[in-house]
Design goal:
Two copies of one chain form a homodimer. Chain A is of the alpha+beta class. In chain A, 38% of the residues lie in helices and 21% in strands. The first copy, chain A, has two domains: 15-159, Jelly Rolls (Sandwich); 162-240, Arc Repressor Mutant, subunit A (Orthogonal Bundle). In chain A, the strands form three sheets. In chain A, strands 1-2-9-4-7 form a five-stranded antiparallel β-sheet. In chain A, strands 3-8-5-6 form a four-stranded antiparallel β-sheet. In chain A, strands 10-12-11 form a three-stranded antiparallel β-sheet. Chain A binds a DNA duplex through α6.
Chain lengths: 242, 242
DNA sequence: CGCAGTGTTGACCGATCTCAATCCCGGTGG
DNA sequence: CCACCGGGATTGAGATCGGTCAACACTGCG
């Protein structure tokens, strides 16, 4: 579900192209790492850097896919909704990850910033054209998409077959792995309880109850708000089973 | 979830290469459609045609991904399991679809034939090497994988947020669209009730109950066994909501 | 200090699961 | 032609997990 750890900084809504790709923080990890100088310069001319605020939506489900891009800083959620408004988060996007649906088609998900964020965006048509000319980009995208598909399918097991306890524990383990580093260290959850519920297919209260049970069992600590520290990683992993 | 309609014929377990790609039934739709004569001949030399029986497993979850291929005839399921044996079907594979995980990595799913089937298989290493040399293949794979990812994510909405009724109705609608053609026509479900449950994240009894409710409501007919006729497609679609 | 938004807790309800009995269809053998 | 058999499918009864509704607590901020 999660791809790469990343940090968030202040952001504003201006667009600029003042920085070259050389200074780009995700240069080595994003799909552009497959490009050499000339091609990179060409791609650079097609893109611009955009800052978005937490909560802002970049693409709407079933609208035409007008833009694609790389995440530079911050995190996004991908979500879909039923016609009556039930929401399911289908992916979390981290810095260096790719956003949007290249090659025709409507966007199948809504893309919303979970934190203030900055991205390097391209008009979809222009990007498609560039990709046609540059197999390296398609190759990089392919590998990324295959990984993403594996992750989505693993999540289907969670949604279809796991209990609430297992789901919440799985999420916390993944969070800790991604954001936390050493055990015992405190991390800041990037998701509200509601968003955790939307990701896990659970009601907000069920998420909350599971977490207090884990806290009472001494497996985690919740110093308040979105702060989390994993006390017993093995125990938590056991609760996640899978 | 489903990609292409297909038929099933008798099959045996022998492998052969007697037929050229020209006569291949999925030539126009599989990823090899991106190849010209010479490259196609080269790929043909790497592959062989294999027949498998219903129930036979090609790849096991978390084993090394040793082979990939194109489905010629028949259908497969992709599935994952929890450590204690709960199963989730994460995809159904139809003729002309691609099977397996190219580019390193373990297979993340078990691939099992739902019907007698035949496929055109390659050793994964050999296929990877070929793909490196032929961007067209990677491009075709990319488009396919993007579609598959969209489908997987749509299914996540079903698993995470839909009721049992909606799930079963959604599946039947999709089945009818894929296999049925005209409304009222009878189709043969490729899945047992158990497999429908494993795909929908439901207990077998829940699937069965939903179907009899649909039958009693006159929306579908169940002439017995795996046979199904959709009587009121609009009504069924309404039950599927989404 | 109070307000608003978020998170927690409790009580209750209902959808879905589980367990178990029965049914039905297709195939087999007498 | 029919009785029997086996496996999948259906049906029923009861248990349970998670959802819903509602009250309350906490946190951060003006």
């Amino acid at each position: 579900m999660f791809e790469t750890a990343g940090t968030t900084r202040d952001a504003d809504e201006t667009a600029d192209s003042t920085h070259g790709c050389e200074s780009c923080g995700v240069r080595a990890r994003a799909i552009c790492c497959s490009l050499d100088g000339a091609a990179l310069a060409e791609l650079h001319r097609l893109g611009r850097r955009v800052h978005v605020r937490r909560g802002q939506t970049l693409l709407w489900e079933s609208d035409e896919s007008v833009l694609v891009g790389n995440v530079l800083e911050g995190m996004f959620k991908l979500s879909t909704m039923t016609s009556d408004g039930r929401e399911q988060i289908v992916g979390i996007v981290f810095p260096s990850d790719f956003i949007g649906r290249p090659f025709g088609r409507d966007s199948q998900q809504t893309v919303t910033a979970l934190t203030d964020a900055s991205i390097c965006v391209f008009r979809r048509g222009a990007f498609d054209g560039f990709a046609e000319e540059h197999p390296g980009i398609q190759q990089a995208l392919l590998r990324r998409t295959l990984d993403e598909l594996d992750r989505a399918r693993r999540w289907m097991l969670l949604l279809g077959r796991m209990t609430a306890t297992e789901r919440v524990a799985s999420l916390l383990v993944e969070m800790a792995d991604r954001l936390g580093g050493a055990s015992g260290r405190e991390i800041m959850l990037p998701l509200s309880r509601q968003q955790m519920g939307d990701l896990l297919g659970l009601a907000i209260e069920t998420v909350s109850r599971a977490m207090t049970r884990f806290k009472d069992a001494g497996v985690i600590a919740l110093p308040g708000g979105r702060r989390l520290a994993v006390r017993d990683r093995a125990g938590l992993r056991r609760l996640a089973s899978a």
